[in-house]
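REQUEST
  id: r-88c1
  op: predict_structure
  target: Bile acid:sodium symporter family protein
  payload:
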Amino acid sequence: MTAKPAGLLGRLKPDWYIILIVGMVLLASVLPARGAAVPVFDVATSIAIGTVFFLHGAKLSREAVIKGVTHWRLHLLVLACTFALFPLLTLGLSALPAWITPVSLAPGLMFLGCLPSTIQSSIGFTAIARGNVAATVASATASNLLGIAITPLLAAMLMHAQGSGLSFHSVQSILLQLLAPFVAGQLLRPVIGGWISQRAKFLSYVDRGSILLVVYSAFSEAVVGGIWNQVGALDLLRLGALCLVLLGAVLLATLMAARALGFNTEDEITIVFCGSKKSLASGVPMAGVLFPGASLGLVLLPIMIFHQLQLMACAVIAQHYAKRADNAPETV
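RESPONSE
  id: r-88c1
  status: 200
  body:
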């Protein structure tokens, strides 16, 4: 009986996609877009970002938002972890001495803390772990829906306080470039929802391909601006360690909070997986709007590292929960 979760777990690991993302960084490091190619990539990136959020709006089922919404204690706890605990922790990490937290990477850490949770992997890992899938769908969906507005506002507030140069004017840009396509997708869902569903696999490639384009464009500009002169191997190691500490702290906090508040095991699984994740799919396009210029590459590094760490950690945790469920005595 344990073979099925293990097989599904293997299918959920997006190793190829992570490799492609890293490949875009390497390609941009060797062959960055320069000269006349830059405006072309800028336009293509803007179109790609709009496309991503249009598809998100068109795919998002209103029933998924409504389903499980009555479980308000669970949803409030997940949202508190996502948009309160995470930002406070990353704000604290970014304020550490420069020999611990590289100054150039501190804005990226803060932005990471402001991002919404993931949807696909949260649902997938919850299903493997035998958790409350319906509540996960509702909670992760609400996180992403609210994140379109909350993330830029939080990022602007925290980074303005830290003098990182992110202005509230950027929030207007993200509302126009991200929220407008998202709303358009939602409005057109009754017309194109069936077409979208029938081509879900193909459109997922469009979605992910758009993110790869944003990553390549961002790192091209960053490489031209001298990112690898600002960030060395030691900085990347320190960043990885900081992301591990952050992930471990949030996983422990969500677990302890779920148990302290008396949630059952199925709800605990939902809280742990939804409350501890940050969305690369939402984070890359948002960063592309909020951080134009060479600084975008620096902002994306923490997101990329944390994303892979959270997938590996949650894969192990999901398997542990699944084995515990398989070994639990049957009740009549």
